[in-house]
Amino acid sequence: MKFDGKIVLALCVLSGANAFVVQAPKTRATSALSSYLAGLGGGPPDPEDEGRGGPLGDPADLEDRLQSQLDTQKALEDRLQNQLANQNELEQRLQAFENKGSAPGGPVAAAGPPPRTSALSSGPTGDVMDVWEEGTPVIVQGNSLKTWSFPSPVMERVHVGVRTEGRPFDADIELWQGPDNTPMKLRAYVEDGGLRPFSAIIETPRGPNTVAVRNIGQLEFPMDAVVTADGGAFPSTSNFEPESKPMTIQGGALRTYPFSPMVESVAVCLTTDGRPLNTRIELLQGPNNIKQVMEVYTEDGMDRPFFAIIETPGSGNVVRVVNTATVEFPLTASVEPYMVGDGAEYMQPVIGGDRSGSIIDRVW
User: Fold this and answer.
1) Which of 27, 146, 292, 327 is at 20 to 30 A from 18, Cα to Cα?
2) To the nearest whole percent, how much of the chain has pLDDT over 90?
3) Which superfamily does CATH assign the domain made up of 118-343 to?
């Protein structure tokens, strides 16, 4: 067969031109896109994913993982349901307990501290703890002195309170009226200043007056002291009305006043007919077990009588009043229950000697 030379030349030229055309290689992006479309069912599968169960792995493994996640979610839902059920049960029990305790004599009322009611039929019946809310307590370190001055002559009496966090305290309390004039002196010792805080009314006629509180204890025994003007809500010698007839205690004699466990505090009022007052007041709880001692001196028992509230928690409390003056200086004493509780907390046994009822562990 004869070929035209021109035709052969044209074919060679076209074949050479195709040899210089660059073919674009297949990229990984195209393969990834193909795998993604294959996973969604919208495109052909990627050949590289063949042999390993598709783009997301083996279908059996995926099913196991999904089932495991479903089981975990179900377990969490069950735990949440149990917690909600327990919460609802606790709320119902609490509501029933509150409803039952709101009734008279319910367990809520019995679980708390016993209610305190005044034993006085007339006159002011303020609580001794009110002085700590009315005034600003001041920390008195061991072997230090704090003073409170009242320049107004209208101030007739002040309320003095001393307490600790449970430690004992030994304090000197004095009333200053002018230079080198101390018409009233008091020394107080309390075994537990948190359980039995000191509270007394000091008469301050004809001001100005200054009340000095000195901590004569060691540095390791600080105490809190507060002195406020008496506003009349707290009983004093001017408005105290005892239920029984006051007793006369001759010089060198003593009187004892026992009280039942229901008595939470005792009011003590000591006066004279204008003579000096020298006395010692003791709180005993058991034989020769002194819990609180107050040694009082006033230059005029009528113008400056002594009035104090003694806390008497527990049972077996006895207040003893001793006239430390000579026989020429008698005094008149009135010792009456002030705050009375129901005595319910003292019906329970005390374990290990701890008043809170906890058992004391001992190492043998």
Assistant:
1) 27
2) 44
3) GOLD domain (2.60.120.680)
